[in-house]
Design brief:
Elements lengths: L13 E3 L4 H10 L3 E4 L14 E4 L7 E4 L4 E5 L4 H10 L2 E2 L11 H6 L16 E7 L5 E5 L5 H4 L8 E8 L1 E2 L2 E11 H6 L1 H5 L4 E6 L5 E10 L12 E2 L23 E2 L19 E8 L3 H9 L2 H4 L3 E9 L14 E8 L3 H15 L5 E2 L12 H4 L3 H11 L8 H7 L6
Parallel strand pairs: 1-3, 2-3
Antiparallel strand pairs: 4-5, 5-9, 6-10, 7-8, 7-9, 11-13, 11-14, 11-15, 12-13, 12-17, 16-18, 16-19, 17-18
Bound molecules: flavin-adenine dinucleotide.
Flavin-adenine dinucleotide (FAD) binds next to strand 2, helix 3 and strand 9.
C-alpha cells in the first residue's frame, strides 16, 4: 500500500478490516504494533507502522444528526465529502473544509487539518465527543468534561484508534467566491490582517517571486457585505485555477455566484476525484501577527523555492485548545507549499526554509513533509510534556508509535 502522493510505501506486515468495534478492540489489545490508516492523504510516515494497519471501512457506518443538540455523530472512517453531502441534505453544515473533500474525518482531525479564515478554527474544533480504542483495547468516549479530551482530539495517532466522532453542526449556509489578481506584495504586507479578514475564508496563492501575488481567493458568506476594498488588486472576470496554466474546469464556481458551503469552501469540485497525486506538500503554522515578517523571510528564499514549487497557499486559522494542535492558543497564519514530486530536492531545501521560519515560532503540519530534528517541540507546545506523559501512561509499550512519533516524542520507554 502506498499513500495518496505515492511517495511512501507503508511498512505494515498485515492489514485488517474489522467488521465490529469489538473485533477492532481485540486486534488492538493483542497487537505489538498497530495503527489506523485513514484516506492515506498524509505525506510523511505519521500513519505508518511495521505492525498491523487497521482500515475502518468495514465497520458498521452511521451518521445521526441531533438537531436539538446541534451535533452529528459519525463513524471514524467517513470522508468530509460524504459527511458534507449527508449533512447538507438535512439542512446542516460544518464550519469549514480543507482544500480536498476526500480526506477522512478522523485522520484529518488527528493531524490538525484546517481550512482558512481568521475566525475559523481547525476542523478539530468541531469535535464535541470522540470514541477511542486505547492501546489496552478499552473503548472510551471522551467529551470536553474529560481531562484527556484536549490531548486526544489532535492526537497525531498516538493515543488510540478513533471509531466515532460527535461534531458540532450549524444550519447550511451559502458562500460566494471571487478571485483577486495582481495584489502587490507591498499592499499584502502592509494590510495582511485586513485582507485576510475581508471574507469568511481567504487564501493567497504565490510562488514568492516578483512584486505581486498572482491570486487571492475570497470566500464570503452570502450574508456578508460585498467587499469594500480590493486593496489595489483587480477582480478576475473569468474563472481561475490556482496554477496559472491550468484550466479552471475542476475548480469550484467563482465570479460571486452564490452556492452551497460544500461547493464553495473547497477549491476543487467534489466530483473531481484525484485517486493519487503527483505532488508533495509541507506547511508551517505561526502566529498571525508574524505573517508580514515571515513572508518576507520566505520571499528571500524564492530563487531556491520557486523551481521546486507548483504553488504556495497562505491561509489563516483561529486559535484552539488542543494540546498538540499547531493552532494551540495561537491565531495563526499557515504557509503551505505544494511541491513538485522531487522529494530529494525538496528535502534538501526544507531545513533552510524551516530555519528561516524558526524565529517566528513555526510549528509544522503533522501530516506533511518536515524535518523533525529542526524543532524543539517542548518549547513550541506548552502542553507537550503532558502529552508525552499521557502517551507513556496509555501506551507504555509503544503500540501506536512509528518512526515519526519516535522522532517527535522520543522513543517509548518500555518498563
Ligand atoms: C491533496 C491534499 C490536500 C490537502 N489539503 C489540506 C488542507 O487543506 N488543510 C490541511 O490542513 N491539510 C490538508 N491536507 C493534509 C491532510 O489533511 C492530512 O494529512 C490528514 O491527516 C489526512 O487524513 P487521512 O485520513 O488521509 O489520514 P492518514 O494519512 O491516513 O493518517 C494520518 C494520521 O491520522 C491517523 N488516523 C487516521 N485514521 C485514524 C483513526 N480512525 N483513529 C486514529 N488515528 C487515525 C493515522 O494513524 C495517522 O497518524 C491535504 C492533503 C492532500 C493529499
Amino acid at each position: 500500500m502506498k499513500n495518496w502522493a505515492g511517495n511512501l510505501e507503508y511498512s505494515s506486515a498485515e492489514v485488517h478490516r474489522p467488521t465490529s468495534v469489538a473485533e477492532l478492540q481485540e486486534l488492538v489489545a493483542s497487537a505489538t504494533r498497530v495503527k489506523a490508516l485513514g484516506s492515506r492523504h498524509s505525506f510523511n510516515t505519521v500513519a505508518d507502522t511495521d505492525g498491523i494497519h487497521i482500515l475502518l471501512d468495514a465497520l458498521p457506518q452511521s451518521l445521526v444528526v441531533d438537531a436539538a443538540k446541534g451535533t452529528v455523530k459519525v463513524s471514524g472512517g467517513i470522508s468530509y465529502g460524504a459527511l458534507g453531502r449527508a449533512l447538507d441534505e438535512q439542512g446542516f453544515a460544518i464550519h469549514n473544509l480543507a482544500s480536498l473533500p476526500h480526506i477522512s474525518v478522523a485522520g484529518a482531525i488527528q493531524t490538525g487539518t484546517h481550512g482558512s479564515g481568521v475566525n475559523n478554527p481547525s476542523l478539530a474544533a468541531a469535535v464535541v465527543g470522540i470514541d477511542l480504542v486505547r492501546a489496552s483495547g478499552e473503548l472510551v468516549t471522551l467529551t470536553a468534561d474529560d481531562d484527556e479530551f484536549l490531548a486526544s482530539v489532535v492526537g497525531v495517532g498516538a493515543l488510540g484508534i478513533v471509531t466515532g466522532l460527535e461534531l458540532a453542526v450549524r444550519p447550511s449556509f451559502e458562500v460566494r467566491q471571487r478571485v483577486l489578481t495582481g495584489l502587490s506584495w507591498e499592499s499584502a504586507l502592509t494590510n495582511f490582517q485586513g485582507i485576510a479578514s475581508s471574507a469568511y475564508s481567504v487564501s493567497f496563492f504565490t510562488d514568492y517571486t516578483g512584486d505581486t501575488i498572482p491570486q487571492v481567493w475570497l470566500k464570503a458568506l452570502d450574508t456578508e457585505a460585498p467587499l469594500p476594498d480590493l486593496f489595489g488588486a483587480t477582480a478576475a472576470t473569468t474563472a481561475m485555477h490556482p496554477l496559472p496554466d491550468m484550466s479552471a474546469e475542476n475548480c469550484t464556481e467563482q465570479l460571486d455566484v452564490a452556492g452551497k458551503w460544500l461547493d464553495r469552501l473547497p477549491h476543487f469540485r467534489h466530483e473531481f476525484t484525484p485517486s493519487n497525486g503527483e505532488e508533495l506538500q509541507s506547511e508551517f503554522l505561526l502566529p498571525l501577527d508574524q505573517a508580514p515578517a515571515a513572508l518576507q523571510a520566505v520571499r528571500g528564499l524564492s530563487e531556491k523555492l520557486a523551481p521546486l514549487l507548483f504553488i504556495s497557499e497562505i491561509r489563516t486559522i483561529a486559535a484552539d485548545e488542543f494540546w498538540l494542535s499547531p493552532f494551540y492558543e495561537q491565531q495563526s497564519v499557515a504557509l503551505h507549499f505544494t511541491w513538485k514530486p522531487l522529494q530529494p530536492e525538496v528535502e534538501a531545501v526544507l531545513p533552510e526554509l524551516e530555519e528561516a521560519l524558526r524565529p517566528f515560532g513555526a510549528r509544522p503540519h503533522w501530516g506533511k513533509l518536515f524535518t523533525p530534528g529542526q524543532y524543539d517541540f517542548a518549547a513550541l507546545y506548552p502542553r507537550f510534556e503532558d502529552f508525552r506523559a499521557l502517551v507513556q501512561a496509555n501506551d507504555p509499550s509503544g503500540k501506536f508509535r512509528n518512526s515519526l512519533l519516535d522522532s517527535v516524542l522520543g522513543v517509548a520507554v518500555t518498563s
